[in-house]
Design goal:
Helix content: 40-55%
Structural class: alpha/beta
Radius of gyration: 17 Å
Strand content: 15-25%
Order of helices and strands: EEEHEHEHEHHHHHHHEHEHH
Strand order of the largest sheet: 1-2-4-3-5-6-7-8
CATH class: Alpha Beta
CATH superfamily: Alpha/Beta hydrolase fold, catalytic domain
């Protein structure tokens, strides 16, 4: 059982920053942030988990940690992103962790649970449908229209410049609170800082990770007002989970950790307690 605190972990020459907090002997919960946020997206969720006796590990992921910003599309393939999470689990010295992800972090959490179930005690995903459900919804609903930016991000250089110029306006318009926008902008609102996060989208066409069905106990929390992720993919997700499953629908938008931390923490606590 891990006891010493992590501030960083390493993989393939990259150094990732981690916030390791909560009771030292608590069950381990890994929290994966999305785009374009960082590990502080969990700042309101973490204390609620700590109060329940859980220990949390929240990394700044590839492209976000200052010591882990490789260049090139291939560096952001799903294979690399999932391997980073396994390396973090190794660094915690736990055989298994309770895995939680939001937005892109949720997409990676689905893949880790499906490809490395021996390392995942339970899974809680916020907002993001199972990747296979997402693919199905792209051709059977309005999800393709909602996801137009994923194609636009394949362009070189220009997306970083456009997003950097409108960073605050875009995020405030999406419903993210002003304080969170300012905090994320302090780190990411420049073309250079955004190259890594946007690289996650550019790495998709090069990726070959299989989106297996998930057999670990799973909770999926989705906001019915999510601007990016629609109902069709949310409902299809059930078909890609073979283990115990709970679907929690909230009358909420996309930014669940920042705006609905109590409901997020309750879902995580319930899932951890079920195992």
């Amino acid at each position: 059982m891990a006891s010493s605190r992590l501030s960083t972990f390493s993989r393939s020459g990259l150094v990732f920053d981690v916030t390791d907090s909560g009771p030292s002997g608590g069950d381990p919960v890994v929290l994966l942030h999305g785009f374009p946020t960082d590990r502080t997206s969990w700042r309101h969720v973490e204390p609620l988990l700590h109060a329940a006796g859980l220990r949390t590990y929240a990394p700044d992921q590839r492209g976000y940690s200052t010591g882990a910003r490789p260049s090139g599309r291939a560096a952001y393939r799903l294979e690399e992103l999932t391997a980073d999470v396994v390396a973090l689990i190794d660094a915690t010295s736990h055989e298994k962790v309770h895995l939680v992800g939001h937005d892109w972090g949720g997409g990676i959490a689905w893949l880790v649970a499906g490809n490395h179930p021996e390392r995942v005690a339970s899974l809680t995903v916020l907002s993001t449908p199972h990747p296979a459900a997402m693919r199905r919804a792209l051709t059977s609903s309005d999800q393709g229209v909602r996801s137009w930016y994923m194609a636009a991000f394949q362009l070189p250089v220009l997306p970083e410049q456009v997003v950097a110029r409108g960073f605050g306006r875009l995020l405030r318009g999406s419903g993210l609170p002003a304080g969170d926008v300012e905090r994320y902008a302090a780190r990411l609102a420049s073309p250079g800082a955004l190259a890594g996060p946007i690289g996650w989208y550019r790495g998709l066409p090069l990726s070959q990770v299989s989106a297996h069905r998930v057999g670990v106990p799973t909770t999926y929390v989705w906001g019915s007002r999510d601007f990016a992720l629609g109902r069709r993919a949310a409902e299809l997700t059930r078909e890609h989970v073979t283990g115990p499953y709970e679907f929690v629908e909230l009358a909420a938008g996309h930014w669940l950790p920042e705006k609905r931390p109590e409901e997020c923490a309750a879902a995580i606590r319930a899932r951890v307690a079920s195992v």
